[in-house]
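I am writing to request your help with a piece of structural work I have in hand. I set the record out below, with my sincere thanks for your time.
___
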Amino acid sequence: MLIEITPDAYDVDLDLRYATADNIAGRPIYARAACYLHMDAAALLGRAVALARPLGLRLRVFDAFRPAEAQWVLWDSCPDPEFLADPRRGSPHSMGAAIDLTLVDGLSGEPLDMGTGFDATVPESHHGCIDLSVDAQRNRALLLGLMTAADWDFYRNEWWHYQLFKPRGRYPVLTDAAAGTRMMPGTGS
């Protein structure tokens, strides 16, 4: 069961990149900007938000549930298994079990420096990369600490990607129609 993640309900910022041209495909993939997670992942997002709040930080979400057909669009644009799950295998995003996000200052809304942008398909995006400023390394470690303390697993090649532990086999891969999210072009709004 997918739950819609809204700024009011979850106290997060939304910057849903795949509803814009500001992504690795260079064009909007979603016809409707909406953010969903499986209810298990939504509960862990709530934990992460609660951990960030006393530190004066907020979470900004770039992507969460990604319909299976959107995963194909991304794969066709950038078929790099170092940064994208092969859609034939299934992405944790397409299960509602993954989230892409960053930290922002709770007062100004300015994003913390993470050394690279979201979806940067470069080695500097990897966790543990030390060829970054000290501030970027510290901010990544802070995000990693908050998310792992909230029981999220991380993907070693993307500082922004977190997922439920071992989602394959536990959660089904969903299309836009099966999920009922109406995010993809031609499915209505």
